[in-house]
Amino acid sequence: MRVIGLMSGTSLDGVDAAWLETDGEQVGAFGPALTIPYEPALRAVIRELLDLAPTLVADDPQLLAVSRRLTEVHADAVRALDAPYDLIGFHGQTILHEPQRRRTWQIGDAAWLAKTLGRPVAYDFRSADVAAGGEGAPLVPLFHSGLAAALPKPLAILNIGGVANVTYLGADGSIAACDTGPGNALLDDWVQQHTGQAFDADGRLAAEGKPDADMLRHWLSHSYFERELPKSLDRLSFHALLDNIRGMSASDGAATLAAFTAAAVAATRLPQRPQHWLITGGGRRNPAIMAALARTLAVPVNPVESVGWDGDFLEAQCFAYLAMRVKRGLPLSLPMTTGVPLPMQGGQIQP
Ligand SMILES: Nc1ncnc2c1ncn2[C@@H]1O[C@H](COP(=O)(O)OP(=O)(O)OP(=O)(O)O)[C@@H](O)[C@H]1O
Ligand SMILES: CC(=O)N[C@H]1[C@@H]2OC[C@@H](O2)[C@@H](O)[C@@H]1O[C@H](C)C(=O)O
User: Which SUPFAM superfamilies match (predicted)?
Assistant: First the structure.
């Protein structure tokens, strides 16, 4: 089928839309893809919702207004693709993720989207996993595994979005996954506070600073790094760390945060040492993060473009793939990817 995947990630930068031809097992063909950025005002109210989410009720009027507004941007993205399609995969915007309390919350109005576009919409990808005791994230590993079928293993695929997550693919066909730690979200917030910019473009600020080795050691003693795989994070899980560097210069803070993203990846205990790392997500454009990864992992580290994938749209493509799996009743997650007891179906379809 021809499926459009829609992803609004933890960076809150906008909606990614990507067209994919797939049966939910193999990827037939990639198609057009685009991003519609959120306007600063919408981005700011979504950011507020992340802080408010623990105390919000599902019918809160402000929440419903934001949910509708961001769904409209998703509809715009689908229309802008201007490509024929049969099904939509709509991730929505995560505003809260607390799998240990069996809660994960993605906002967005799937019924409205389906009605407006006149096509079925698969959504609510994470809640069945969390209800079964899983982490509810990451969900991208089955898609990575499908894409990487012919690549040499052991291989790691690292997405550096707001949060960073890794998929490990073993030579024996095994698969493992987790969120590794912060991706760009802390760095984005730091840069926003210090320069008013949304992110550290091309890692320029980080390049002017020096990572604080003592701070990195202290941060790596966080209990998250002791936990076995699989495990997942909320966007705000490591947020309090920003208090520790309040007195640092803007550039040293940026350098320390970029180094921490890489150090957290290196601290992740995978089943075996990957021979090769492929990097996707916006963080692959940050040379400070990429150089730190290459240094600490000491095996080839390349953007996913090196194997012909598009690192700006892999997640949107993933939710097209998963939409097809929802439709076919195929599992979205496995014990080794999210900690569910058995391979787990999920998602719902509107109408
Ligand atoms: N040229 C660049 N230089 C440095 N960083 C960049 C650049 N372009 C993008 N980024 C970083 O990538 C981020 C966006 O990444 P991406 O779109 O992969 O995140 P996301 O999909 O929202 O997150 P998640 O994967 O957690 O859901 C930006 O917020 C910024 O930090
Ligand atoms: C709860 C949630 O939305 N998690 C996201 C987030 O962004 C990156 C990382 O944390 C990952 O675990 C997940 O997204 C990707 C697409 C996933 O589920 O695979």
Answer: Actin-like ATPase domain (SSF53067)
Torsion of CA 279, 178, 234, 135, to 10 degrees: 140
Q: Which DSSP state fits 333? A: B
183 Cβ inside 6 Å of ligand 1: yes
Whether residue 250 sits in one domain with residue 206: yes
Q: What is the pTM of this model?
A: 0.97
Ligand nearest to the CA of 279: 1
Residue minimizing CA distance to atom 24 of ligand 1:
161
Question: Residue 238 C-alpha to ligand 2 middle, in angstroms?
Answer: 15
Quote the longest CA-to-CA distance of the chain.
56
Dump pLDDT digits (tens) for 72-94. Answer: 999 999 999 999 999 999 999 99
- The string of pLDDT tens digits covering residues 171-220 is 999 999 999 999 999 999 999 999 999 999 999 999 999 999 999 999 99
- Pocket residue to mutate for ligand 1, from 125, 160, 167, 199, most atoms within 8 A of Cβ: 199
**Does the structure's ipTM exceed the value 0.85?**
yes
234 lies in the same domain as 301: yes
Q: Is 202 in the pocket of ligand 1 (CB under 6 A)?
A: yes
Contact 160, 280 (CB under 8 A): yes
Domain co-membership, 258 together with 285 = yes
Q: Which residue has the CA at smallest separation from atom 7 of ligand 2?
A: 163
Q: Domain containing 70: what range? A: 2-136+311-350
- Verify that 23 and 44 share a domain, yes or no: yes
**Is 82 in the same domain as 223?**
no
CATH number, domain of 82, equals: 3.30.420.40
Angle between helices 40-52 and 61-81 (to 10 degrees): 130
According to the annotation, is 12 in a ligand binding site?
Answer: yes
**Does 165 lie in the same domain as 111?**
no
Give the count of domains, the chain. 2
Beta carbon of 179 within 6 Å of any ligand 1 atom: no
